[in-house]
Write a structure and sequence with these properties.
TIM Barrel; ten-stranded mixed beta sheet; globular; binds ligand PBG; 326 residues; single chain
Amino acid sequence: MGFPEVRMRRLRRNAAIRNMVAETRLMADDFILPLFACPGERVRAPIAAMPGVYRSSIDGLLETCGEAVDAGVGAVLLFGIPDAKDDEGRSGYAEDGIVQRAIAAIKRRFNDLYVITDVCNCEYTTHGHCGPLVNGEVANDATLDILALQALSHARAGCDMVAPSDMMDGRVKRIRAQLDSAGFELLPILSYAVKYASAFYGPFREAAGSAPAFGDRRGYQMDPRNGNEALREVHLDIDEGADMVMVKPALSYLDVVRRIRETSTVPVAAYNVSGEYSMVKAAADRGWIDGKAVMMEILTSIKRAGAQAIITYHAVEAAKLLAVGR
Ligand code: PBG
């Protein structure tokens, strides 16, 4: 049967029927809000390219967490901006480091808020690369030791999940072993399994002060031209013990999200990264697009593609809109 017996418009005529047949439903608990923790008190430094996003000292982070909880957002992803950096990123695993203190403070105040930590060295190294350098190249195996110490320090501080984002080979296995041997066998790992070498990270690097001092990350992050390679990465990380995998960035890689969703059974997260956020904010600011509508359409598309969790700077704003029925 076809037209005129079939008319697709019948199920689009009003909100009630559209809502009844909607295949994708965004919910506040789809979202994970990234947070940037910095030392000090009453620090709330705006990030120029990311309106509404700040680097905050712990007091400010707690305020933002309160807002997130009130809006129904269930999880945050913590990044640290340390006082001190060195060649290897040792401040990343200091017991009283910025992330470690932030975790403890957040869990003390909001016990039910799920705290995920980004595990990587680029915020903690003077050169901004994700691990120690040997002949100008990030040394994979030496980086693993530092990552494992960092993950363990986050676990000790009380985080709920660790998310390694460095793209070194073998890090999930190494981190799993470290956590298990210290009694954290129930702490899950969300692997940034598929992280592309992307220009969409630009604003984040300003936020985190983690732009590489020289070169780029193409020697360890994935080539945007590849899709099969993403499936391989996911497969390896699952074998190493990843409980969830992430695709990053989200928007230019929705095909990859879909393929992973269809070929593996672990939950998939997608990171709606800084550049994706900035583009929406900048265009909305100029009146070129309806920022809220575009935001919801983007988040919906990420979920429709197959992501069960969406890491997004829009989390609180989107959750509030959902609460009032968009
Ligand atoms: C690395 C890391 C990056 C992001 C999250 N973790 C950036 C990078 O590889 O330079 C990017 C997040 C974003 O752009 O929003 N620790």
